[in-house]
Amino acid sequence: MKDNIVIHGLTFRPFLSRQQIAERTNQLGQRISRDYQGKRPLFLAVLNGAFIFAADLMRACEIDCAITFIRLASYEGLASSGQVKTVIGLQEDIKGRDVIIVEDIVDTGQTMSQFMPQLEQMEPASVALASLLVKTEALECEVDIKYTGFEIPNKFVIGYGLDYDGLGRNIPEIYQLAD
């Protein structure tokens, strides 16, 4: 990992290494494989941020599974706007399916607290949430997160799919905004 990186004039310091992310993702994949043994869950990856985590998480699973994508927007710059917009909607019929929503980060919890009830109306067999990162200090509402990668402080992070105004998604580690 580099000591620090600068994006759009802001300095970010190392937070989670590639190895830490890979190890935790593999653990989550093994757990999902046990929990869904004999089932074929549908991973519902939330674009844009979760695409890298979703790919790695699927590869870590040792069961048959499928994936589809949706795009929800709630961020403007460094902060969550609190308003959830569906940019690309769900194209799959999920009635009777086991669905695992894959998120890069749960921040305030607003996005998932608004989206999960909408998903439940489509009558899936089950809905679970897997998030690489959870900012427990920032949660404003209750969200049932079945699979958590890392609980992190309430600081802005980039890398491994997470961006700052479009940049930083390609960084293989996770960096945190420097004080």
Number of domains: 1
The largest sheet, given as strand count, sense and whether it forms a barrel, is: 6 strands, mixed
- Which structural class fits the helix and strand makeup? alpha/beta
Low-confidence stretches: none
Would you state the CATH class?
Alpha Beta
Give the strand line-up of the largest sheet.
Answer: 5-4-3-6-7-8
Outline: globular
Order of SSEs: EEHEHEEEHEEEE
Brief account:
It contains 3 helices and 10 strands. The chain has helices at residues 18-35, 51-60, 110-120, and strands spanning 5-7, 10-16, 42-47, 66-76, 79-88, 98-106, 126-134, 147-151, 157-158, 174-177.
Overview of the molecule:
There is one protein chain. With 179 residues, the protein is α/β, with parallel strands linked by helices. The chain has a single domain, classed as Rossmann fold (3-Layer(aba) Sandwich). 22% of the residues lie in helices and 37% in strands. The chain has three helices and ten strands, in the order E-E-H-E-H-E-E-E-H-E-E-E-E. It has helices at 18-35, 51-60, 110-120, and strands at residues 5-7, 10-16, 42-47, 66-76, 79-88, 98-106, 126-134, 147-151, 157-158, 174-177. The strands form two sheets. A six-stranded mixed sheet has the order 5-4-3-6-7-8, with helices on both faces. It has a four-stranded antiparallel sheet with strand order 1-2-10-9. A hairpin with a 2-residue loop joins strand 1 and strand 2 (10-16). Helix 1 (18-35) crosses helix 2. The protein is globular, with a radius of gyration of 16 Å. The mean pLDDT is 92.
